[in-house]
Design brief:
mainly alpha
Length: 116
């Protein structure tokens, strides 16, 4: 039988293990290019631990691949607040912003042709 004091520790440990499992699932889905599933798995992690930088990063990568740049940028910025010195996160912010600009330029060029 688990004592009351140990029960809360045990429950917390289970939640941490679940978060790690979902984080690994998110990584697997990223490697397999199943970006919607990666977003879902990373979101499950963040429901358990909203300060999980790996999950924020993985969800940002998946959303960027789905061209959801605003959502991806929001996750990357949240990760940067939690870990300001994380070089990988900082570098990916640059990637997202670059992709955003590229898409904006393409849309602008298409609209320009349409209205000429």
């Amino acid at each position: 039988m688990i004592e009351k004091d140990n029960a809360s520790d045990f429950a917390g440990e289970i939640l941490m293990i679940k978060a790690r499992c979902y984080n690994n699932i998110a990584l697997h889905h990223l490697h397999e290019s199943h970006f919607n599933l990666a977003v879902a798995a990373a979101t499950r992690v963040l429901l358990l631990d909203d300060k999980n930088v790996k999950a924020l990063y993985r969800r940002a990568v998946a959303n960027a691949e789905l061209q959801n740049y605003e959502v991806a940028l929001s996750d990357i910025q949240a990760a940067m607040v939690l870990e300001p010195g994380n070089k990988t996160v900082k570098q990916y912010e640059v990637v997202i912003k670059g992709r955003q600009k590229s898409v904006s330029r393409k849309y602008a060029a298409a609209m320009k042709q349409y209205f000429l």
